[in-house]
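[step 3/7] fold_predict: job queued, chain A
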Amino acid sequence: MPLINLIPLLSMPGGSEWILIAVVVLLIFGGKKIPELMRGLGKGVREFKDAKGNVEKEIEEGMNEKDTKETPPKA
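[step 4/7] structure written:
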């Protein structure tokens, strides 16, 4: 199968496909489980963002420490 034929398969779903996905999710999980599922998803995303921020902060602090150690003191 040529690569040009695979590109449409990798694209994002359109409006009608999102509606179909939402209906399937509603049927599988039911109306009462969806808020719990979304709450858990939100917590996961929040934890990921916090971890990402901590890693970025540690990298910046490490770079700042490296810069201050490389600069010789003036006498």
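[step 5/7] annotate
The radius of gyration is 24 Å.
The chain has a mean pLDDT of 81.
exit 0
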